[in-house]
Design goal:
- The chain has about 280 residues and is mainly alpha-helical.
- The chain is about 60% helix and about 5% strand.
- The strands form two sheets. The protein has a three-stranded antiparallel β-sheet with strand order 3-4-5. It has a two-stranded antiparallel sheet with strand order 1-2.
- Helix 5 runs antiparallel to helix 6, helix 6 crosses helix 10 and helix 8 packs across helix 10.
- The radius of gyration is 20 Å and the shape is globular.
Length: about 280
Amino acid sequence: MNLPTLAAIDDHLTGQRPHPWLERLPRFLREFLYFGIKEARACLFVVLFFAAVFTVPREGLFGIARYDVLLVAALAIQAFMLVAKLETWDELKAICLFHAVGFALEVFKTSPSIGSWSYPDAGVTKVLGVPLFAGFMYAAVGSYIIQAWRLFDLRVLHHPPHWMAALVASLIYANFFTHHYIGDYRWYLAAAALGLYARSTVVFRPLDRDRRMPLLLAFVLIGFFIWIAENISTFFRVWSYPNQLGAWAAVHVGKWSSWALLVVMTFTIVANLKHIKARIHVPD
């Protein structure tokens, strides 16, 4: 798909009129269709990246290890997003932060003393046992939120004070490390997030009318789809949990809560981008 065509699609999606041949459909069908198209478009980085994850054979390509091929693919996709003006430089900086935060977590979780999961295959671009492409799996979540914000013309009402949101997000991230030493406080942090965002509402526009959803529900739904993607990734042996080394087994449903909390943390970073922060209402 060439860049002008992609730009034209985005211009149409961010407009407020359906394609003429869809105008005869009932409104709920038109909105549902455009909601699905916008969701798919917002997942462009996710779809392209995980298409590479699932199609590159385990033995690699052209004598290059799979993990190294995936790093090249991720960098190429990211460059495409920037050149096509689908992401700004400020958004790219935020995505690089997601990559760094995710990579640091991966290094800790895969260390010999923790061993939460592992990357069993070889690769030139593995650092401390973690392939460099791994951080892009976290960056993909940030890219989705950034793209969805623009395509759905998102606004957030009754957002908590930014310092409170940042504090809870920092504690969520810290708990991924500290629960190995001082106990898992995930559910206490989930309760804190529940109280903090209880009144928060996300306003989005599938087509030409605003719709509303509790922000907490959005966190839970995104976390669920990440959990599904994790099951698919482990099935293809991109990484493995200890109980999957002999034969594949579904990722424990408890990971859903971990991913939902990670979405809260990711959302907090995105919410501090200047052009997005302006569309967030914080009560006085």
